[in-house]
Amino acid sequence: GIFGVGGGFLIVPLLLFLSGATMHQIIATSLAVVTIVSAVAFATYFIRSPMESYSEIYLASAGAVCGMVLGMFLANKIPTAVLQRLFAFVLLVLSITLALKTTNILDF
């Protein structure tokens, strides 16, 4: 939680290397940290700048619930090796996108 939401994802390789936990346990721990940090950040933002319409909150909540249900359904169906490669690929794509965005190569 010290490193924010991004730290929740970056800690995964470190936990995998240093602990005897399975990849599923590590990802669950990471997602718990991300959830707590995100919830606190969202609550703080909501308190400081109230919205005129709550439709965005409803849509985001519906998307989060759908993602959790899908994740629970797929969690035990994906082999650990595939999960590790998929996680590494997503982290790589996000890192490249962030690097390109911060260097103003991508304008979106």
Describe this structure in words.
Helices cover 79% and strands 0% of the residues. It contains four helices and no strands. The chain has helices spanning 4-18, 23-48, 55-75, 80-102. Helix 1 (4-18) runs antiparallel to helix 2. The model has no long low-confidence stretch (mean pLDDT 77).
In short:
With 108 residues, the protein is mainly α.
Helix and strand topology:
Layout: H1 4-18, H2 23-48, H3 55-75, H4 80-102
Helix pairs in contact: 1-2
- Unreliable spans are none
Report the sheet with the most strands, covering strand number, pairing sense and barrel closure.
none
Q: What's the total count of β strands?
A: 0
Global geometry: globular
Find the structural class using helix and strand composition: mainly alpha
Essential attributes:
about 0% strand
